[in-house]
Each structure stands twice: as C-alpha cells, then as structure tokens.
Amino acid sequence: MTQKRISKELQECLTTPPAGIKVNLVDEGNIHNWNIVMDGPADSPYVGGKFQLLLVLPTEYPFKPPKINFKTRIYHPNVTFDEHGSMCIGILKSDSWKPSSRIPNVLTAIQQLLLEPVPDDAVEQGAAQKFKEDRKAFDKEARDMTKKYAK
Amino acid sequence: MEDERGVEMECIAAIFPEIVFDSDNPFSATIELPVHPTSSVKVNFPASADGLLLTPPLSVTSGQEGDQSITEPANNVESHNLSYLPSLELRITLPEGYPEEKPAQFQLSTNPAWLSRSYLDELQEHGNHMWEEAGRSLVVYGYMDYLQQAAENAFGFAEKGRTLEIPQDFKISLLDYDIKETQAAFEKETFDCGICLDPKKGTVCHRMIDCGHVFCVQCLQEFYNNAITEGDLATVRCLAPDCAKKRAEARGGKKVRKSKIQLSPSELLQIPLEHEIVARYVKLKHKAELESDKNTIYCPRKWCQGAARSKKHRKPDGLEDTAESEDDSDNEESGKLEQFVAGRDLLSVCEDCSYAFCSRCYQGWHGEFFSCAPKTNTGELTEEDKASLEYMKLHTTPCPTCAAPAQKTHGCNHMICFKCHSHFCYLCSAWLSPSNPYKHYNEEKTSCYMRLWELEGGDGDDVGIGYAGGVRPVEIPPDPQEREIEVAVAADIVNNELRDIPEIVEPGDEDEPPEPRPEIQREGPLVLRINQPLPPPAPAVPDPPPAANVRNRPQRQQQPNRRVNNPAPVRGGLNRRREPHQRQQIRDAQAQAQGAAEQEEANQRWVRMFVQMAMNDEEDQLDSDDEDDAAAWEIPVR
Which ranges carry the UBC core domain (chain A) (predicted)? Predict the structure, then answer.
C-alpha cells in the first residue's frame, strides 16, 4: 500500500507539481526520499531563491507523517538556520497528521510558511524578533541570505 | 387505422423499460415510480389511532407511548428524516375508445400505505384533468412525468416546515426501506479513497457516521488495527484532514469533546474491525480513563491490580461505548451528599476480581466502623518492575500535568501528552503554553535555550538510531557582559561528531585558541556551562585528536539526571560531579582562599587541563582513585 500510494503521489507531483515546486527522487531506486526544489514565493523576501528540501517518507507512510527539512539554508523564524533546516509545522506533527493528508498539502503549507512566517511559534528567535520589530531589516537579511545560499 | 393505444404503450415501454405489461391485456401495465426526494422528508410516527401497537415494542419509549398517548400525545412522537420512501405503484389501463372518448384509468397505491388513500385519489383525479386539458389526447407520458416531478419533493412533504405523518405501524418497514435504499445507492457509487488514492466501489467503502467522509474499508482496517494495537487511541478518528476542526467550526466554535471525535466501538464493528480489536479499543479507552483520574483506586491483590468499581468510569460491558459516563457524574455527587456515611466511601470493590477492600489501608473490607491507618508503600518491587522503573527514569519524561511518562521516538522536544494533551518540554518536563510552546527554547533564561532539537533521533537505547543531541552547533550570544556558553561536550554521546568541540572557540575571534573560563559546571553529560568574564589569553591548547579517535571511545554510563533543571551556576568554585576527592580539595581551597588571583590562576589551569582532556576524551582519568594520579591533578593551593 505504501509503495503504491507513494508512487501515485510521485506521479502526480511529477506531472502536475504545485506551482513553484519541482520534485525528483534523490535516488531513482528509492521512492522514499524526494528531492524538492521550491522557488521563493513572489511577495516574499525569498523571491528569486531556489530552496532545496529533502522529503523522507517513512515505511509506515501514509499512516506516519513524512519528514521534511530545508537543505538550503534559509533565514526564517520557523526554520532552524543550520545544516538541518528543521521545521515544526502543524501538519507534520504526528497527532495532527491524517493519512489522507497529501504531499502537495505539505509542500503548499511550507510555501505558505515562507509567505507568512509565524514569529510567535519560532524556532529561530533572532529572526522572529527581527521579523516582529524591524520588518525591513528582516526582509533585507532574508534577501541577503537568499542571495548567498539559495542560488 | 393503427391503434393509438399500442403506439403510446410502445413509446412508454421504450422510455420506462421497467414497465410490466399484463399478460392478458397489452393495454394494461404497472410501473413503480421511486420516491427519492431531493431533500429528505421529515416523518413523524404518531402512535396508531386505536392505541394498539401492532409492532412489538422496540424500546422502552415505544412501550410507554400507548399509555401516555391519552394525556400528552405530542410528547413521544418520534421524528426521522428519510431520504427514500417506498415507491409509488402506478397501474395504467387504456380502455377501448381511449384517447378520443374515454380517459385512461390510473390507479395509484403504495406499499405500505404511507400516502393516504384520499391523497392518492386526488392524484388519480389529476390524470383525468390532464386528459381533458390536453384535448382528450395521449396523456400517459405526461401524467407519469407529472408524478415523477411530484415525487421529487415527496408530493410536497419534503418542503421546509412540513412533516409527513405516518402511522406507527409502518415505522419499521419505512425506516428499513430508507436504510436499504441509502446503502444500495452508496454501494453503486464509486469513491476515491483518500488513503490509498484508489477509486473504490461503495461496496468496499465505509462512510463515517458523524461526518460523512468516505474511505475504503481496507485502509480503515489497516489504520485502526494498527492504532489500536499500538494503543494510539487518539488517532481512532475520522482520517480526513482537519475533519474535527471543521466540524467544530460548523458548530460555532464549540469545542467538540475528544470522545466525540473518536469513533464509537459500534462504528468500528460496522467498518468492520475484528471483534477482538474493538474489545481491546474499549478496554484501552477504559484504562486510559482510569489512569487519567487521580482518584482511581487499584486492587491490592498483586495478581489482579484491577481498578475499583466506580460510577464515573464504569467498566465496559461488552462493547458498549463508555464515553457517555461523564454525564452522570453530577447525579453521583448529589447522591453522595445525601447519604454520606462516615467510612462507607472507603469500601472499594475491584471491578475485575470483585475483591472488597478498604481504600485507606488496602486490607480486606473491615466494615465502616473500623479505624485503620493509611497504607504505606512497602517498597517491594519485583526485578521486572525495577528494570522498567529504571528504564522509565532514563528514557522517559513525565507530563507535568498528569505525570504520564512519555518517551520520544523522534522530532523536537515540544511534546503533547498522549493522555491529557498538555504541552511540555521533553528535556525538563516544564509545562509549555499551547499558544507558543517554542518560547521555552528561545529564551536565554531557561535551561533549554536553543535545545529544541536535542535528542532529535529519539530517546532510549532502542529508539531511533542517531542520537542527535548536541550535534546542532550551539549559537553563542554575542553579549560580552553575560557570557554563558553552553558547550556540548560530546563525551557521553556515542557516534557524536567532533564538530562540537570547536564551539568552545570564542565567538567572533576564531583564530584564538579555546578560552575556558574558571567557573565550570557540568550539566549532566551534555553541557559544560562556563561563566565569568574573560581571563587573559591562555597558552594555546593543542589541536584535538583526529575524529576517528573520538568516535571510538567507549560508551559511558548515561546519567539519568541529564534533563533535570540545571541549578544556577555556582559562583566562586568548581562543582564537578563524580570527583569527590577533588571536590574536597576545592572546598579546602575555598576555605583557605587567600589571594584570589592566584587561586583563579590555578583554577584556570585546571580548567584548561580538564577541557584539554575532555577533547582527548581522557577526562575520565580524573575520576581515577589512584592517589598519585589524582595528586597530579590537584589544584595547588597557596
């Protein structure tokens, strides 16, 4: 079931990917690891950047949520600014994950997060503070980091 | 001339292939017209007029109805919304001379007779009107079309505010018909199961009773069997995203009780799940309820340890739903007040083995008038209990609200209690605000600052593989006034990588050698906390050994206290665990402290040595009982 469902979702994401998102397998022989390239959304300081994410689908998928991390560094209140690029987003918490949630939902939730950071739920306090107190400085920093890392 | 009747009947038969012609008369036929109104019909079933119940009483209420119908007939009327009503049977006979001279004969009936005879007569009469109005021409198709349209709003009864009254006698057959037709229509449909994403026939699907979402039976079985086997009861709910939330919103923001979101045992049986699995679900739900209630008393018999009978959490009998029990808690309380007798509330009866015992002294029941002493813990634990307690101490964190132990399998340290849904920190067990749980990791004053992702790979020998605690580079606050640096010392972490070590390097000045400062406190195995202003530059510390060396180091004992809140750093001295000998020395040194600068220098030297050894992973040698060895590490006191 897992394999079948993943390959279906993969098929769908390959043929009609959500806008601004490209999907391919990290290794053609393994459908559990997806390489995602997400364009920085327009109207966000990440515009122009190409962000790589790694999506890992567990063997229990879709009963257990996928794991997703930013591989490209990103300056964002809700993503750790390190090589892990971890996020705490609601849809992926095991108690709110539902087996009928789909990968495109997850990806669009992340796009949404890039458009609208949630500073009150931040994992990067510095970025959150700047976002709240000096939006211009935050945008500049985010743009600079996008230029630096997300080319 | 060709008989017009024959032509018309042929046409009708082409349009309605289900029509049945009489074998002896080609101009006579019957057809059933389904009654499936576009919106459901509200149907009342008043008791039969003569008070005689032809159907056997279904429930207590229907039994009472006969008695009460004289005094308050309106009260016990049951109302149902039906989507399907038994079809209307139309009998058509075209007599000789139709259509010019004689009208067609229409006869209507329903089985059971849910439409009154007078109303059916009216409908029949309408056929004659149509024939007259159409100038005595062919009217059968027009009439049938009229009937079908009338059926679409159940002959007017489906309109808002109207109810259809049907004698009680027909209740069962009508409800039955509705259920059967609904099911038949469902089975004919095709659904895309949201879990396996395959299109499935309705016959192998299940529609959620509360919310109407449809999934295929196979996926539901797999998911719920898995969840119930693993004891993950909270996920036994509708599997559509945001389903509960949307329903709550639809109800005007009123929070839906958790038990209402969870599926009922009867629905699980309908899916269907195995009887044993549903029984386990009911049992676990009951157990979780008992465990979340601090007042639950357990049977003192070692082999039993069941819960004492309680009205609040009634032991499920068979597979009944236990969720409703909360409603009668009020009654119970008031009942208690009325007949309170000293001592009586001590009597507890085990729901499993029926042992009657005293809930104060845990002895067999001694009557109400015996003064007993509360039982003190005997402290006798089996080896198995001890082992699991030890494991729990090492690899679980209790919920701050209900004390239920949680073991992390992966992810960040923001936990939500499986039992009481409190948000808490896995590292220090602190309660976290559900609105902003991450604040705890973002405030420098907490001991968990920047530690959200510690233990990301899970906690425990058997959980996860990569124990990632401390791998994440610690960011150092640039404020020079408050130098508090948490250095992740890799010592206790197998597979940890050396890249933590360079974190000792001063921020912003990477060419400088590590600058350990005199105040040190080891916080569990993970963290070295260093306080106080910068001392003058110290001699360079040699490079750490190659990483391979470090990875090969033996695993050391894990300290269970690593998540305990770190005490405030001790000022003016060293506080190292596991070095009693030296601690003594230090205390002595403190006592005799003269010339603070000298001592500080000595301390610095020791710290440098310690850090150096930590980097070489040799600081264990500090623990050595060997006097000579220890002497070499003594801090000289002048």
Answer: 1-151
